[in-house]
Amino acid sequence: xxxxxxxxxxxxxxxxxxxxxxxxxxxxxxxxxxxxxxxxxxxxxxxxxxxxxxxxxxxxxxxxxxxxxxxxxxxxxxxxxxxxxxxxxxxxxxxxxxxxxxxxxxxxxxxxxxxxxxxxxxxxxxxx
Length: 128
Prior knowledge:
Blueprint: E1 2-6, E2 9-23, E3 26-39, E4 45-56, E5 61-67, E6 75-76, E7 81-90, E8 94-105, E9 110-122
Antiparallel strand pairs: 1-2, 2-3, 3-7, 4-5, 4-6, 4-8, 8-9
């Protein structure tokens, strides 16, 4: 698990290799990840959008941006958390992800960035 706190928002990430997919003899490597966003600040916050940088061992990079996470823009009171799971496909059995969430402090109506810590995506068989 990797964790990071930015401006009172704690991000915790776990991930795992789900297996290989083959489409027209081109392999893809499936990974899942679960993220918990915990509001440790004294303010009410809302997750507005996400920005991801995904890179694989072949140096392919993909940028993913969008509103919210998994179709929601959760509002978190102080002490509350939101957990969700998602996944990605890589062209190699190893890679990494990192990014940011744009959050809004609903008490001040100001946006701020929260770092999603970098985490590695590794298929166990590729580690030898």
